[in-house]
Design brief:
By secondary structure, the protein is α+β, with helices and mostly antiparallel strands. It has a domain of 40 residues. Helix content is 17%, strand content 9%. The protein has 2 helices and 2 strands. It has a two-stranded antiparallel sheet with strand order 1-2. The longest helix is centred in the last third of the chain and has 8 residues. The chain is elongated, with a radius of gyration of 17 Å.
Length: 69
Amino acid sequence: MTENAPHRLYLREDQIPAQWYNLRADMPEKPEPIRLPNGAVARPEDLAPVFCDELVAQELDDDTAYFDI
């Protein structure tokens, strides 16, 4: 590689994304659910100490393709 990739990308205000894309919404085969260290499937209350309520909902959502930022 002869050129270095820029370490910063500057966007005009009209270029800043307003939504993020949830790839899982369009996957024909959904990935395994988030698991706890003991192997149990994580519930929303298990993620609450790490994420706010809105992010917990997004992390567990396999159906919504776009989320507003």
